[in-house]
Specification:
By secondary structure, this protein is mostly helical. It has 21 helices and no strands. It has two domains: 415 residues, Growth Hormone, Chain: A, CATH 1.20.1250; 55 residues. The two termini are 29 Å apart.
Length: 475
């Protein structure tokens, strides 16, 4: 490879991973700013919950459509569209003085994120064709996703306190504009045959059933935590299940399905989907529980609480540039995923022993560093095998499937673990409830580790090296 090509690949990786960081940062950056948003726009607690949920629900619910759009219309074209949508919505959120417009902007941000993420993964597989380079690229990409929640929590407090709550949305604009202006020159062009494929049907019935079912499921799962809305949430859960069953039936008959069921015959796709749901269910509640512990039992302020989780991001970034590429090259993605989930289980089990009075350096920091290494290892190990095991025409939808599983798992995990924590608090005390939540999250991470070793084990006759695109296209 020429020096010019290498520089172009590096620049493309910086562009893609910077967008990945911003997209996942926005899942958590608003949390600490919610009180000031409420005071500024007159939102009560129920309305403030939707500042977060509107983004998360649209993100998770629309990712399958985003993945298939990347395959049908071209990954670079869809990446640019999703990023433009995300950037414009960020400007709307940062400039509005109206509560309903903020909620609408957050939903549009989620749609933009859902379109962008699968296209990122498809672009990575096309930009980096050599196995070692691809492993390094996925390592950096995984670190950005893993670091996003921690960096969002930390920067949310700093920005809100110094520049006001609007700055947490407006900070996306320079990244979005810079990425859009350079995407055409750095990212690989869409194949010419995409123009002929563009008119193919996008499976509208499947898109409506799947997206509506996922959105309702996400809303219902969140509403289950509130005793006043539990009855209606149960009904919506049943409706969502019916819609998703209809979605599967539609996909089985569709000529051009939104989610080709044949992909689940590929072991890496099925295993990665199941395990990634557990990755989300284990790590997302951990950040919520840790914030509750630091603020409600140790009386940390918002900025201090945010900075307390920053070592997770630092460890993730360092590991992604050093140990993770070497580990995946030496031991393979399956081993990396198992180790990553094992490290998460260790870190979360460590948090089950948090004392009534904390010493940050000995009680929190070691586990935060372990978690920071485990998260990017899991993200890389669970995503790369599925995306690289299928033909390039299916890379976008495969990325959408695997990432949707994590979003759904995150919602289910947060609700279930916070309900468990609340139940234990009712029979014991607040700290015991938090410890029970950490124990449940550690158990989910351990289960994911065990399933990795079983569901993702290589077939006895399978060769060790990563298959070439030509081989993968015939699977």
């Amino acid at each position: 490879m020429s020096e010019r090509s290498a520089r172009r690949q590096t620049a493309a990786l910086v562009l893609i991973t910077a967008v990945e960081l911003v997209v996942f940062l926005d899942t958590s950056v608003v949390n600490i700013a919610l009180p000031r948003i409420g005071a500024g726009l007159g939102l009560d607690e129920a309305g403030l919950a939707w500042v977060t949920n509107a983004y998360l629900l649209a993100f998770g619910g629309c990712m399958l459509v985003g993945g298939r759009a990347a395959d049908r219309l071209g990954a670079r074209r869809v990446f640019a569209f999703g990023l433009a949508l995300f950037t414009v919505a960020s400007a709307m959120a940062g400039l509005t003085n109206t509560a309903w417009l903020l909620l609408a902007a957050r939903a549009v941000q989620g749609v933009g994120a859902a379109v962008t993420v699968p296209a990122q993964l498809a672009l990575l597989t096309r930009t980096f064709s050599e196995p070692a380079e691809r492993r390094r690229a996925f390592g950096v990409w995984g670190a950005m996703g893993a670091a996003g929640a921690a960096i969002g929590t930390a920067t949310g407090g700093l920005l809100t306190q110094s520049l006001g709550w609007r700055s947490i949305f407006l900070i996306n604009l320079p990244v979005g504009v810079a990425a859009l202006s350079s995407a055409g020159g750095l990212l690989p062009p869409d194949p010419a045959r995409r123009r002929a494929d563009a008119g193919r049907r996008l499976d509208l019935p499947g898109a409506v059933l799947g997206t509506t079912g996922l959105l309702l499921l996400g809303y219902a799962v969140g509403a289950l935590a509130d005793p006043e809305s539990r009855a209606s949430a149960t009904v919506l859960t049943v409706v969502a299940a019916v819609l998703l069953a209809g979605f599967v039936a539609t996909e089985a008959r569709a000529t051009e399905p939104l989610m080709p069921l044949r992909l689940f015959r590929v072991r890496q796709v099925t295993g990665s989907t199941v395990v990634n749901a557990l990755v989300g269910a284990a790590h997302v509640p951990a950040f919520a529980l840790l914030a509750l512990y630091l603020q409600n039992t140790q009386h940390y302020g918002p900025t201090r609480s945010g900075l307390a989780v920053l070592p997770v991001a630092v460890a993730a970034l360092i590991a992604s540039r050093t140990a993770i590429p070497a580990a995946v090259e030496r031991f393979g993605a399956r081993a990396l995923l198992a180790v990553g989930l094992g490290l998460q289980a260790v870190a979360l089990a460590w948090f089950t022993a948090l004392p009534a009075t904390v010493s940050y350096l000995t009680d929190v920091l070691p586990a935060a560093l372990i978690l920071g290494v485990g998260l990017p290892a899991s993200f890389v190990g669970v995503t790369a095998p599925a995306v690289t095991a299928v033909a390039q025409d299916d890379a976008g939808v495969t990325a959408g499937i695997v990432n949707t599983a994590q979003r759904v798992g995150s919602g289910l995990g947060v609700t279930a673990i916070l309900l468990l924590s609340s139940a234990v608090t009712g029979t014991a005390d607040y700290l015991s409830g938090l410890r029970a939540g950490f124990a449940a999250a550690a158990g989910l991470a351990l289960l994911g580790c065990l399933l990795t070793l079983t569901l993702l084990r290589p077939a006895p006759s399978s060769p060790a090296p990563t298959p070439s695109p030509a081989m993968r296209s015939h699977r």
